Amino acid sequence: MPCCISSMSRRTLLQTGAALPLISAPGGGHPLEPGARRTLRVQPVLIYQIFRPRPQTSWRPWGGLFTEKEVAEERARIGRELEAISRTAGYPVEFLPLREVRSVDEGKAVAAGNHDALLMYPASGGVRLLESVSRPGTPAVIFVRHRSGPLYEWYEIVHPRFLRKTVDEWGQPGAEPADVVVDETADAAWRLRALGGLKHTQGRRVLCLGGASGWGAGGRRAPELARERFGLDLVEVSYDELGRRLQEARKDGKLVKQAALEAGDYLGKKGVKLETRREYVDNAFLLTHVLRGMMREAGSTAFTINNCMSTIMPIGETTACLPLSLLNDEGYLAFCESDFVVIPSGILLQAISGQPVFLNDPTTPHHGLVTQAHCTAPRKMDGRNQENVRVVTHFESDYGAAPKVEMRIGQKITNIIPDFSFKRWVGFEGEIAAAPFLPICRSQIDVSFRCDSYSLASAMRGFHWMTCYGDWRREVGYALGKVGIEWVDMTA
What we know:
It contains 15 helices and 20 strands. By secondary structure, the chain is an alpha/beta fold. It has two domains: about 40-190, Rossmann fold, CATH 3.40.50; about 200-490, Alpha-Beta Barrel (L-fucose Isomerase, Chain A, domain 3), CATH 3.20.14.
């Protein structure tokens, strides 16, 4: 039966037709609900030592935390800051009780705990204390004080002593200058949001109808690289299996009627205009039911479809465009083309933002403008409100039902441009300048940008882009640094 592609060849897998197994979400427990994100468990730790006066010697380091009373005040201050971070992180974060480290043994006890990330408050003490709480593979945000409370010793020396070990090369595994925050809880919050998004991405299970793939000659190794870099669990299922399930669905009169009612409700809403045959829309809603059921059985909330232009049409008697749009609006991740060059960026961007994302074809940047288009855009691009939509045919086939989503003019967006080799991703902030109706894929936007057009064109790699409402560049860049992918922000 279909299983992880690492243990069965694609050829063998696609020749099978058995039902999919029910698999729990990665990390154990019940499968994730669509739109839900895994909670990031964060261990806050206050690192300090109490120094006593000694005659005729330098007995105290820089800093302002020297008495038990000051330590108690600092505990309370940190508690208030953790509450503020919880409110502003924009990601589900669980703060464990604050731990205090005054010795290497206490630090090792913290390192052995069950947490996804550290939030270190290094007020004072030697470098061995900081090193003792750190463990390979567990990221740490390092919060130091300048003006937000008693000045920390490590405000002075975190870079030369902890990060560089008193030489010019980086020496602390997994740590970098971007991990250091001075005073601002908001700066800690967005870093934890990025780490939460990365946790939610790593190990995600993706159901791949027609197999996992990658665009072009450069994308041949994309599924393999997606597993290596992000630990994605790619579960393949054949079109024969989809055809069997659709035949069963069509025999279920109650389900067929329900799909037609849902289609009618969708078309009857304000802001929706039908410009294709109604039967294509009814069939799209029935196909959506089948795809949703397959994901649930696989324990997945992410889905992609390969060879979607021609293979799906005779089986589904419609196109996959509208079903993918509907699933994205429900909180699933649903992508066409099974392009694992770009799909990991969509999983990460949705995990960070909590909003649907738009996989699209870019054009040539010129005069500060680029056109982006595809036939599968979500309507809830901001995660809440539905944009107006014209339901038309899929452009290349002039068949089926595809959404022309009228994205918001003036909306700031994040664009990610992944490379084929998973080494260097490019990004920039754009603004939707127009939502035209050119003879191309149906959901389309003209996007303005602030960087030089030639510089952007020269930096482009891969093919497909990933787009999301809002500005998430710093979170994406910070998360990518933890998996060894360079982030190039063209807007900065």
